[in-house]
Amino acid sequence: MPRPSNLPANWRDVVSATVSLAEKKTAAEIKVVVLNYCWVDIREKARVLFFRHGLQKTKNRNAVMIVLVLKNREFLVYGDKGIHEKVTDEFWLHTRDSMLSSFQKGDIVEGLCHGVQLVGEKLALYFPYQHNDENELSDEVIYET
Q1: Which partner for 111 in 61, 64, 99, 133 could form a disulfide, CB atoms 3.0-4.6 Å apart?
Q2: What is the CATH number of the domain that holds 91?
Q3: Burial class of 112 by CB neighbour count within 10 A (0 to 12, 13 to 18, 19+)
Q4: Smallest Cα–Cα separation from 75: which of 92, 61, 51?
Q5: Number of domains in the chain
Q6: Which uninterrupted H or E stretch holds 74?
Q7: Range of the domain at 89
Q8: Consecutive 10-residue runs of the chain (145 residues): their mean pLDDT?
């Protein structure tokens, strides 16, 4: 599968491993989607992707998706109803700002991983891992060219 030229060859493995580690602390789900470009508003695209990949089907409506659009140089952290009921806007802004700091330094993988870690830590507070937890979504990064 092709990869963005500005990312290392193992970028998907690194981010997927970070998702797996973060989800070992929470019963919630985290999905990372990277797009080459987006012709519509990123919020609308995120909504479509959220439903296309079944993130709204988690038992507690507690999935969070991080969407990064490379060519547009924009990203969005998109949470389902269950997590929105628990966290404040400050959490979303802090996560965005932390990721943006890495992106501005040119470290896209670090930005994605840091965002996943922050989201995982917050989800663990409200949706702690249960011994019988089922991984409802694949931890694999979705990359759309």
Answers
A1: 99
A2: 3.10.310.50
A3: buried
A4: 92
A5: 1
A6: strand 74-79
A7: 11-144
A8: 72 97 96 96 96 94 96 94 92 95 94 97 95 91 91
